[in-house]
Amino acid sequence: MAHSRFIKDTGLTARMTLTMFLLGALFVGLVVGLIQVVGSGYAPLVAIIAIGMAFWQWWSSDKVAMRAMRAREVTPEEAPELHGMIDRLCALADMPKPRVGIADMAAPNAFATGRSPDRAVVCVTTGILRTLDAEELEAVLAHELSHVAHRDVLVMTVASSAGIAAGLLMRFAQFGGMGRSRNNNSAFPAVLVALLVSLVVYAVSFLLLRLLSRYRELSADRAGAYLTLKPAALGSALQKISGEAAATPSRDLRAGNAVSALCIVPAVRGTGLSGLMATHPPLQQRLEQLARIQAELGRPTG
Question: Which of 74, 155, 227, 267 could form a disulfide with 78 if both were Cys (CB 3.0 to 4.6 A apart)?
Fold first, then answer.
C-alpha cells in the first residue's frame, strides 16, 4: 500500500496479492494454450498482443473511466469547494493530491481511478454535489482517497484486463484454429481446449474481481471513517446515494455501467445484491460496520 495515514488493511493486501497471482497464472496458461492453437510460429505475435492489451488497460485506465462517466477534469478555479475538501483530506492523510473530476450525471455517485497515486483522479457527479451536505461529501471523498492510497484501484484495473483479454484472445483462437483446420483436421480439439481455457479465465477473473471489489469497499469505508472520525456522515451519505439511485430512471444510470465496480455505490440496479454477482457489499452490512466504528470512537478510553 502507498504511504499515508489511512489505516493499514492486511486483509486487503493479501486479497490483492492473491488475486493478481491467480489471474497472472491463468493468463499465462491462456497465452500458452492459444500458442498451441495458432502454432509456435505465432508465439511472438501472441505475446505482443497479450502484453499490449494489459499495458493499454493499465496506461489508459483513467481516461477510459472518465470517458465512460462523461467526466472532465476541473481546476481549483472551476470547483474551489471540491478542491478545498480534497486538499484538506490529502493533508490529513499525508498523501499526494489526485486530479479532480466532475461528471455531468444526475445520479449521485463518486469513483476513483488511475494507474498510480500520481496519476489518480477522484471524480464526483453533479448529482452527488446536489444531494449531500458538506460533511457527507467529505466522508465520501475520504472513502475514494483511501482507494487511491491502498492502490486497490490499480489492482482492479490490471486484474480486469485478464477477463477482457480472455474474450479477445478467445476470438483470436477461433480464427487461428479455423485457419489451421483448413490444412489440419486435428486442429479442432486444440481450438476447443483454448476456448475452454478462455472461458475458465473469464469466469475465474469475474468471480475474483467481485470478491475483491466487495472487500475493498468495506475497507475503504473503514479507512475513510477512521480518517475523518465521522462514520455516521458516511453512513448517511450511503443511504442518500442509494435512495437517490433507486429513484433514478434506468436510462440515466446506464452511463455508469462500465465503471459501476469503481463507484462508491453500484451505478446500475441489481449489482448491489448479495451473492457472487455483486460488486458491492449489501448496504446494511456497510451501515452496521460504520455503526460499530461510531460506537468504538465514542467509547471513552481507559
Answer: 74
Confidence of residue 219 (pLDDT cuts 50, 70, 90): very high
Radius of gyration of the chain measured on its C-alpha atoms: 21
Number of structural domains in the chain = 2
Of 139, 137, 101, 105, which is closest to residue 119 (Cα–Cα)? 101
- Same domain, yes or no, for 161 and 292? no
Residue 267 backbone dihedrals phi, psi, to 5 degrees? -80, -15
pLDDT digits (tens, 9 = 90+) for 139-167: 999 999 999 999 998 888 777 666 666 66
**From the candidates 144, 217, 244, 288, which is the catalytic residue?**
144
Half-sphere exposure of 223 (CA within 13 A, CB side): 30
- Reading the block at residue 266, the C-alpha cell is 453500484
Active site residue 144: yes
| pLDDT at residue 89 is higher than 70 | yes
Mean pLDDT computed over 174-190? 56
* Residue 276 falls inside a structural domain: yes
The pTM for the full model equals: 0.84
Cα–Cα distances (Å) from 130 to 72, 86, 134, 136, 241, in that order, read 18, 17, 10, 11, 11
Domain boundary among 187, 209, 231: 209
